[in-house]
Write a structure and sequence with these properties.
By secondary structure, this protein is mainly α. The protein has helices at residues 3-25, 29-46, 56-74, 82-85, 97-114, 117-127, 132-139, 143-161.
Length: 169
């Protein structure tokens, strides 16, 4: 297969999932676009070395995650505590259910962006529908470690996204 046809097929098959992964590592839409270009270039370079020792999807996500980590490191900025992310106002009133789901997804992604890397990566891959074994293969962890990290990430997200009540529990 020609290299350009191979990368086109991979980006066509996995492009939307890669964009969602990029959203978890970039600060804004321009950053997502930049990261997507970096991922495409990294895949162009990496795909000829793919030996089929894992699924192509796993390999693509491994390359994309490494590029995302590099991007995030290069474009560091000071982050707000998770509690501050709750105060971010939605820029426009939402009229329908689809817009509400979109807003909830954006809030979730803001919270996911604030997670420590070890938790963020497992959440992003789980949101892409990967099971523990696939996530473990992408991240170089055991499936048990993935399960533990997912549990911790869920607890952190639940805590961050639960509105504070005046009463103590």
């Amino acid at each position: 297969m020609r290299p350009d046809a191979h990368i086109e097929r991979v980006l066509h098959e996995h492009g939307q999932a890669l964009r969602r992964l990029a959203r978890a590592y970039a600060w804004d839409d321009a950053g997502v676009d930049d990261l997507m270009q970096e991922i495409a270039i990294a895949l162009w370079d990496a795909l000829p070395a793919f030996r089929g020792e894992c699924s192509e999807r796993t390999y693509v996500f491994r390359v994309a995650r490494h590029r995302a980590l590099t991007h995030r490191h290069r474009h560091r900025r000071t982050t707000e505590p998770l509690a501050a992310a709750e105060r971010v106002e939605d820029p426009a009133p939402l009229a329908d259910e689809a817009a509400e789901r979109h807003a909830q997804h954006e809030v979730l992604m803001r919270h996911v962006q604030q997670l420590p890397e070890g938790l963020r990566s497992v959440v992003v891959l789980r949101l892409e529908g990967m099971h523990d074994a696939e996530i473990a293969e992408v991240l170089g962890l055991s499936a048990g470690n993935v399960a533990v990290r997912l549990t911790r990430a869920r607890a952190a997200l639940r805590s961050a996204m639960t509105p504070a009540t005046g009463a103590s529990r």
